[in-house]
């Protein structure tokens, strides 16, 4: 079974479901009743950025759209439909666009070689970000730092598109929807608030989520995490 990852994953799921049900018999029946997520997460498809896991949250907490290099194109019907449903129907309170370090899409956009197939077309908005910021990017000699910088600039460009989205604009005006731009640092597991969108200067000016060395409590529907000095301790209710 160990050499068949699909079978391993299924048996892992079985163990997880048993553990969750044992821990809280109401967990799955409550989930089956419906969803009221507070966060819409727009992120990269990269396997190292599983939003619910890295946020320390639970099924039911985050509505998600992920694509290669977390590119937000106004004409992409997939992204637009997810935004529409999450904002207008589920009425999420936060829209989070999150890029990440070591992004393959960002690295590809910095190169001049064709990736092939549909990928070059998909990465065009990121290429546009590259050429529009050529001076800033060319000044960075370290490749890793350059990839991180274009990932940040990509989030900035994406947040601008989000802030121009009609559904999002209406929700900001009518009920105070918040839009955030973040970067997930894979090397340390932490999410940095880039201070973009509605919460310029950070999430309500906090400059990060529970990273200020102060105690901060984040409650999901099914679990809560208490951050002390940046160290997360999870207690599941
Ligand atoms: Zn990526």
UniProtKB/TrEMBL annotation:
Keywords: Lyase, Metal-binding, Zinc
GO molecular function: carbonate dehydratase activity; zinc ion binding
EC number: 4.2.1.1
SUPFAM superfamilies: beta-carbonic anhydrase, cab
Highest taxon in the source lineage: Eukaryota
GO cellular component: cytoplasm
GO biological process: carbon utilization; cellular response to carbon dioxide; cellular response to oxidative stress
Cofactor(s) demanded: Zn(2+)
Residue sites binding Zn(2+) per the record: 44, 46, 100, 103
Metal-binding listed as a keyword: yes
Cofactor comment text: Binds 1 zinc ion per subunit.
Class in the EC hierarchy, top level: lyase
CDD domains per the UniProt record, alphabetical: beta_CA_cladeA
Catalytic activity: hydrogencarbonate + H(+) = CO2 + H2O
Family: Belongs to the beta-class carbonic anhydrase family.
Primary role: Reversible hydration of carbon dioxide.
Protein's UniProt name: Carbonic anhydrase
